[in-house]
Specification:
About 75% of the residues lie in helices and about 0% in strands. It is mainly α.
Length: about 350
């Protein structure tokens, strides 16, 4: 009962944050507002709580929205995504070693901790890996928590501002809004239940973003062959509220107190991700591989589910972003630690 009360008050803080952000016309207000609302609530009262089950639910919703946008043509074109995925992974790998080494030398962190702090992977995944590899897990977890929160708070506004003069909302995004007007409540409930089921099954696999991946492809197949999968815009808002609240609940007083001691490496790391994102997006757009907005969201170093829920509101190609983000997370959690372990044997 106590946990239920904690969840209820945490979500209430998220809803209040969402309403304020919406009134201020912030981009992705449900995500940004709930993150700030719950973060402040947890710093003040230290009681915010969001169970792991809700993370699975949130990833299921994000996977559902990507799956609804994936067509047969998107899968036929998946070979075209090989190049942007390889280039992105290369950029993030170089960024990890260049910035990680720089932070270690300038800021006094040990090299292993600095390198793992710069990997563009999930907070939980990389924190657990750092524990196994003998790095300072508390520092790694804090660096990734601040990186994730900063990305979700800053990147949507920055991308919107940067691309506003160059791009308009894609027809695909507008079509989605029109289609959603004809959905029925029962289909929404059924779709969310199925997405959660797929998300739960995906969580049992044990791979990064497993819940999102299984939900994405499961919903995609059902959507192709049945008329049952439909989802209104309010479901996406609910998913954003949960996602922002989950991240906000990880921001504690200890996080706030530790920030001054790691402020310089945090700022260096965040600035490097901004640079990588901008350079990658310019290369992809100028060579007509991805449009500018899609490339910028694809290169955001945040969770795949978070970026999917935000990008779908801001006119980017959700199908491409979802696929690139999922593969980037898998690469970051499974291959990057091995590369770092090999590198550490030579230094």
């Amino acid at each position: 009962m106590l946990n239920f009360v904690k969840i209820a008050f945490t979500l209430l803080a998220g809803i209040i944050g969402y309403l304020l952000a919406k009134k201020l016309k912030a981009p992705a207000p449900a995500m940004v507002g709930s993150l700030l609302g719950v973060g402040i609530y947890n710093i003040v009262f230290d009681v915010a709580y969001m169970p792991a089950t809700l993370k699975t639910f949130t990833q299921g919703i994000a996977g559902m929205f990507i799956g609804l946008r994936l067509s047969r043509d998107d899968l036929k074109d998946i070979k075209r995504l090989a190049l942007p995925i390889i280039v992105l992974c290369l950029f993030f790998t170089l960024n990890t070693f260049i910035i990680g080494t720089f932070i270690a030398k300038v800021c006094g962190l040990d090299l292993l901790t600095a390198l793992l702090s710069c990997v563009a992977g999930g907070v939980t995944d990389i924190s657990l890996i750092s524990m196994d590899m003998g790095a300072k897990t508390s520092i790694v977890a804090l660096m990734h928590t601040v990186r994730l929160a900063s990305t979700l708070l800053i990147f949507p506004s920055w991308i919107t501002f940067f691309t506003k003069a160059k791009e308009k909302e894609s027809p695909k995004a507008k079509d989605e809004k029109k289609r959603n007007e004809d959905n029925y409540f029962i289909k929404n409930v059924f779709s969310v239940a199925i997405a959660f089921l797929f998300g739960y099954l995906g969580s049992l696999i044990g791979i990064p973003a497993g819940s999102l991946t299984v939900a994405m492809f499961g919903i995609m197949i059902l959507h192709w062959f049945t008329p049952l999968i439909k989802c209104d815009r309010f479901v996406k808002t609910i998913g954003q509220l949960f996602a922002g609240s989950i991240v906000g609940a990880t921001i504690t007083r200890a996080t706030l107190m530790a920030i001054p001691t790691l402020l310089v490496p945090m700022l260096i790391l965040i600035a490097s991700f901004f640079f990588v994102d901008m350079v990658y997006a310019e290369i992809m757009s100028k060579n007509k591989i991805l449009d500018l907005r899609t490339a910028m969201f694809a290169a955001c170093p945040a969770g795949a589910s978070d970026m999917a829920l935000i990008a779908s509101d801001l006119g980017a190609d959700l199908a491409k972003i979802g696929l690139i983000q999922v593969l980037r997370l898998i690469y970051s959690a499974s291959i990057m630690p091995q590369i770092i372990a090999i590198f550490m044997t030579f230094v």
